[in-house]
Amino acid sequence: MAATLESISIGSLISVVAGISLCLNLFVFIVILKGGFLQSTHNGIYIFALANIGGNAFQMAISTFYLGACSIIQDFIVPGGLYGFWPKFISFLFGSQWYQECLIQAIIALD
């Protein structure tokens, strides 16, 4: 399918918004690492927050570099099409990260 004005604008919007979110997540990730929040004197919740932010950054990287590009060109950017290994693997990574994030949020809520 050929790229249209709608697919270019929506795909670009997905890439830009996800890219900004990726940058913000990486910034907070670095602050937590460099700021010494993972030391034993601080609350242990920062470990879960770091894992959650890392997972969010991973999902935003997939959204920035894969979903945005797929939306623009209206096709898969990896070989194999709908039933190929790579699209299924990327979907698995995205979905499993979402479940991991839900589990971490439940753990954080219990803390």
Your description of this structure?
This protein has 111 residues and is mainly alpha-helical. It has one domain (5-110). Helix content is 77%, strand content 0%. The chain is built from 3 helices and no strands. The longest helix is centred in the first third of the chain and has 30 residues, at 5-34. It is elongated and about 55 Å long. The chain starts with a helix and ends with a helix.
Quick summary of this structure?
It contains three helices and no strands. It is an all-alpha fold and 111 residues long. It has one domain (5-110).
Topology, pairings included?
Elements: H1 5-34, H2 45-73, H3 85-110
Rounded Rg: 17 Å
| Mean pLDDT score | 89
List the secondary-structure elements in sequence, H or E.
HHH
Q: Which outline best applies?
A: elongated
Count of separate DSSP helical elements: 3
Residue stretches low in confidence (pLDDT < 50, at least 5 long) are none
Number of DSSP strand runs:
0
Give the proportion of residues in helices: over 70%
First-to-last CA distance = 49 Å
Query: What is the strand content?
Result: under 5%
- Helix/strand/pairing class, anyone? mainly alpha
Count up the domains: 1
The main sheet comes to:
none
